[in-house]
Each structure stands twice: as C-alpha cells, then as structure tokens.
C-alpha cells in the first residue's frame, strides 16, 4: 500500500525526515490524498471478502421482510395509512444506526493487529486514517441504503413526493450515518477488547428501538415518548417520512414538529463533537 508523503527536510547523512507541507492548501491536499489511500485500502478489503459484505446486506433485507410481512398485518398507524410505508423509513434509519457496531469492530481490529500503529509511524497526515475510515464506511452505507430502497419497493413501499424531497430524505439518512461513523471511530480508538465491542453493539438496540421507527411515540407512556422524541434517530425517521410522503410523521411536541430541522442539527452537533475527538485520540493513542 502506498501513501502520499509530505516534502522532506534533509539532515546530516542525507537522512530524509518527513515534515508537513508549509501551506494550508498543501496540507489539505496532503490529507485528502492520504485519506483516499486509506479509503481504497478498506474498500479493497471488502472486495476481497465479499461474503461478509453480502451477509451485512442480507440482515436489513431480512428485517424488512419480518416487520413488513410478519408484524405488518397486526400494526395500525395513528391517523391511518399503510404500515409498510410507515415502517420502511424507520428501517432505513435503523440500518444507519446499526452500522455503528461495524465501524467500532473495524477500528478495534485494526488497532489490535497493529495496523493503526503502523499508520501512525508513517509520514502521513494524522487525520487520514480516521477520514479514510469514515469515507469507506459511507460508501458501504450508500450501497446498503440503495439495496434497502430496492427491498422496500418490492414489499410495497414507495415515495410520494418528487425527486427533490426524495433525495433530501436519503441525504438526511446518510447524514445520520455520517455522524454515527465518527462516534464509532472514536469508540473504536477508545476501547480495547472484544467484550467492549459486544457491549457497544448491544447498545445499538435501545438506541434504535427507543424511537419512532416502528411505533408512534404517542402510543408510549408520556415520559418514554418524550425520550423517544428526543432520540436523534426519531428526528431523522420523522423527517424522512415527511419528505417521502409516508404516513406517521408529525406530532404535538416541538421536536416532532421540527423534524427536518433537527434531522440536520443533530448529526451536525454529533459530528462537531466527535470528529475532532477522533483526530485527537488517534494522535494520542499511547497516552
């Protein structure tokens, strides 16, 4: 694997000691090139092991079939409407959340095998590893979302708005995933051991199910419904339903009535917190 190296200062004995480029534009180009190298490395690993990729795609498809056909007949949507159209946007968001465990696992595996330490010893931008990991996970998430959209269409789901609102809904789903990728990278750099990874993966379930993904929060106890409404995933689900023109969006609380706004604000806040933490943690892994 090759990486883009920064210009080098020459010292005694003609030993090249890499240093960062002197200008901001050059530093940015250096970081982008190194980040793309790491992204290609991760994507290449997936292509060499297609079985794991296919298995990861089959799980959300199976969930769509289970909730759409086994549970769908017994569920009602407040205000009326088809339950499959209510459920599918929630399944889209659920899959974005469940990708958190995959990110944590990938980062922990690289750290335990010494790959991360090797990256840190190379003359490359310190942000390249975390940025490359994020880009690779987003590519995989986009493919997963495309497969889910196809699965949803097969079970009877459809969008009722134009191309603009539909693309905006898909963009908000990927924006949520983008924010959670940074959370996953940070946790992967922070924790050690498979037991901790299992704990993180287990926590995906309350985060995903304590939301409006599969049932309306109005059907929950008041205090639990309030917690679910303020779950960032609920804002993304409600915004996606609104933009897709699917039933079940809206609500009486402020957070529910401003779902599209909060579906942008929540991921941006999460990213603003965890992206710098990821870079800082990568630089101080041995501390």
From TrEMBL:
Transmembrane segments: 50-71, 86-108, 142-160, 166-191, 203-224, 259-279
Keyword check for Cell membrane: yes
GO MF annotations in UniProt: ABC-type transporter activity
Membrane topology: Multi-pass membrane protein
InterPro entries named among the record's database cross-references: ABC2_TM (IPR013525), ABC2_TM_bact-type (IPR047817), ABC_2_transport (IPR000412), Nod_factor_ABC_transporter (IPR051784)
Residues annotated as signal peptide: none
UniProt similarity note: Belongs to the ABC-2 integral membrane protein family.
Protein name: Transport permease protein
Native species: Nocardiopsis aegyptia
Lineage summary: Bacteria, Bacillati, Actinomycetota, Actinomycetes, Streptosporangiales
